[in-house]
Batch of 4 targets.
Target 1
Amino acid sequence: MIVRQFISWVRTAPAGERAEATRSLARAWLISDLSDDDRAAAEGALLMLLDDPSPLVREAMAQVFAASPDAPPVIVRALSLDQPSVAVPVLAHSPLLIDADLVDLVATGCADIQCAIARRGDLPASVSAAIAEVGAAAAALELIENSGAVLAPFSWDRIAERHGHLAAIREAMLALDDLPAATRLTLVAKLSETLSHFVVARQWLSADRAGRTTTEARERSAINVATHARDDLEGLVGHLRATGQLTAGLILRALLSGNLDLFDQALVELSGLPYDRVARLLHDRGGVGVSALLARAGLPVSTFPAFQAALEATHEIGFVGTVGGAARLRRRMVERVLTRCETDETVAEPLLILLRRFATESAREEARVFCDELVADDVEIAPEDRRIAA
């Protein structure tokens, strides 16, 4: 009887009052001990209110039913298809929506709808993949910041490919400790491209100079990322090869930086030989095995002298007496290889140019580190010590 009176009254009541009455009826559905007849009548009234011309009424219903597992499933599904102000609470919280529903809504919904879904707790990989594939940048950012979302490696890659040019996306992703190494490198490449286009547009650098600078920056980034990706090195090297970045220049840079893990894995990837076999060939002091390995890896013959000189130097002196970790060119090693190649008449000029650039880079980097250490030491000296020293 009460529900019938409600239906008669709600047809002519103001929108605000209808919304409050709808909120009360929805709560009664969830928490009141209604008889079967009253529950059926209440559900009918709520279904009727889905067609109410005022969104205030449907918003009130959505707010009550949003997080409840006991809400009427048919009403929840209808609310999820409503306009964003109505659908967002349901999409963000309702446990009654299945993964297929959410994937479809990501594909057809606006950015607000996608963002609401991206905020859901315990978001499964299939829904995350849909957001990564077609979601707006705002939804991708919500997904990145959602610690309860499950993302497959290809979803991270897709977000980087689609939105990596946006600073907010890059910063949020690079701040993650468990971000796949290949994705991290893709983001760095996106940043390099953005900066390159900017300086060329400003006419600060020519297109050729900017392109070379970008390539060098990518190579340095690859070495740096590889240094911190011991558990993901095989995947990173596969990514470098697939994207055309696993060049002789990068591999030589890895060796001259002391990143032997990256150097070895690169030759394993390119040669197709098992790791143990590659390691034995690299320790061949006669050089025959090294040349055969480099040839099998498809590296240019013109680069062989530099690789052989670097490996010989590694066997003799290692990387003792150098500054920094395995993410930066080692000046002592680079200069040793350059001196060896400059005295070899068979060495091609392009290789010497590359080694000279490496030598300049390593000298400048070592000087910068040295000066930073001097400043740091000076800061640590107490004022009293300065007066005594004076």
Target 2
Amino acid sequence: MCRLHRRYYAAAKRLGRKVMKLRLLAVVCALALGMFVPASTVAASAAPLYYLSLGDSLAAGTQPGHFSTTEGYTYQLYAHLRATMPTLEHVQLACPGETTTSLISGGLAYEWRNPRTPDGRCLYPRGSQLAEATSLLRAHRRFVTLVTTIIGMNYYDPLVVTWFSDPTSLPVEVARADVFNDLLEGIYAAAGDPVADVETAFAALDTTPVNGIPLDVARICAWTWMCAPAPVGPNIHANAAGYAVMAAAFEAKL
């Protein structure tokens, strides 16, 4: 748990130094989208529409023992959308382990759709996840109906499960999650992007006892692998039910 704690919040500290890079990424994607005719104007035709998903392990649907799954929130969101848009196609570019820097310049290769280089970097035909995404956006500029991360997200906090071993740790953990998500929300707001409220869906800041367990802790146990016994857990990634909750949070912003 201590190792997970350090890794999770080391990422939060690094995020502060990457604000400008995230803003640059948002601007690049926004400029690309700015050239498009809204997909709704062509939805009635037989032409394919596209949902482009970018990101890291959560976008790839990572679960214990599986770097990528079709149970992730992007696939579940796609299934919901396709019910009303039968020509919709899902282009999944996410790679577990991806960072802001590697998304721009090339990163870690865990995504099964992308072959690896010998040193484990992502191998996209155009060099990086961002370059691949930009190429697709330009090639199908009139037919892209959704991009995640153009809808951003805040996060649940898997580390609230420290409550089981140290109940006094929960207020500190909740406060850290609040600060982390406020930072993300500020970045997306500056770019004019809506935010899927995963924080609220997971009750990440709600410590109300339910059957003796804080609600935020109970939901992490129910919707992630943090409370699963070894060797499956503890694992910060969502299970299929948790990814469904995340998909619903995104769908609410469409």
Target 3
Amino acid sequence: MVNKSLLERTLAENVTWNKARINFLTKFLVAVIQVKTINLAQVSSVMCGRAKQASHYKRIQRFLRFFQLPFAELARFVIKLMGLRPPFVITIDRTDWYLGETPLNVLLLDIAYRGIGFPLLWTILEKKGCSDTNERINLIEEYLRLFGRQSIEFICADREFIGVDWLAFLCRERIRFRLRLKENLLVENSRHTKRVAARNLFRTQQASVAVLLSGSCQVLGQRLFVMVLRRSDGEYVIVVSTQETTLLLADYARRWGVETLFGCLKTRGFCLEAAHVTDAERLRKLMALLAFCWAYLSGQ
């Protein structure tokens, strides 16, 4: 059960919006949690107040179309609301779906905490497929402007988030990371006279036993430390970092919180796909209005 008065009071104390905007947002968030979907027709049907459903629906549309959301202010609010304390474990990942033939693609940065990712910043990619280096760098730079490098413990990212310029940026900015490599990526260490596929460094290792390679490797132009786990199905989980630590794989495992987040935002939670919003800026606003953090606190 969501406490509407508490929610409205909390918003009023933390965002610099007028009373009407806060009142609308409170009603919207409560309705989203109640119907468990972001489908605007269903949300508008249960919004409290004397106005008819059609009026609520039009008000939601006007909000998404005209109101300039202060995303930086909302990011700070999420950290305060959840009681998070730096340094943070940051995850960067991507999720997508289709509305008919239109690809909807979200690149998202979150804070991993207690097995869940709490969304902080995101951008809508108006294309299908992977993000590029500039899109990732822009998202990280936006975070750095708001919270600074010292607030990051390390960044986690999956195999999609790898590349020469991306690694160079992270190393240049002295941002610690735990990144997973594709097992066929060519790397070089002191035991080999030429580059070899990363998995070949560990072929003799026992399955299901994590191994930290002695010394650093040359990976896409950077000297990095490498740790691996060869799973029982033969797949390799290979993680790299600028830091030599036996906790590399355990640290990397914390990125799983973003998968939990995506499940909560999509079919196992608020059904983001049901919004039927394709405009990039409106979808970005709608992401901000999802009641995930407040629903989490209510559940706690």
Target 4
Amino acid sequence: MADVKTGVAKPSSTGSRAGQPKNANNMLINLIVVVACLAAAHAVFHFVFGAESHFKDGATKHKPADFMGTIYTGGWVVPVLMSTALVLICFVIERALTIFKAKGKVAAGEFVRKVQYHLANKNVDAALAECDKQAGSVGNVMRAGLVKYREMISNNELDTEQKVLSIQKEIEEATALELPMLEKNLVFLSTIASCATLLGLFGTVLGMIRSFSAMATQGNPDAAALAAGISEALINTALGIGTSFLAIIAYNFYTTIIDGITFGIDESGFTLTQSFAANYK
């Protein structure tokens, strides 16, 4: 999977140190989510799917009576896959709340055109008001640049080129604060997309080994028992492929939105620098 690439300057070491407590908190929250999903999945697996009512032989739990019983016979990999699916759902929801908020209330292209119009009329306050209406990452970066833009208008110590560079630096710093928020936790989606299928195949192989080993110890192979064992083993593959499919769709969907936001940020930065260079030579 291709990573989202940007031409943004990295934050300074001072900014990185200031962000360490926040990163530590984020890692702790992520760990709590993962552990909670593991616990929930194992509870559902043992107490719901493993209930005696789902088996013909009751407490023995070797002959499933319905689909839930069949899932239970898939082995210990099944609850791991279930917890992976729960983690996926949690981070899909978390990314949706963050990214759609960052997208803003106004489309990036329309927002940039409005700001261009106000800057052409040298109305910086109106452009700042448009940033408040946009209320997204593009608006936040544009606002930071506009504040510096207004400051440079009244600056008599720097030449035009230096002023433009100052505005550009302010935009880069604001962008460096916005992009990590957008890309945060996407690694969970990409990792699940890659690993869920492999984990499902691993569970299937274990199930096949158990099935054929059981057949080898019997004098007369039972075709029905072998077919049942293979069916139970394939439960893992189905869960793994389904989880991986959803993770790939979610990852590509979110990265597409992030690419659009990143393009809007780049466009807003170009608009500010070009406008200043044209209006305040």
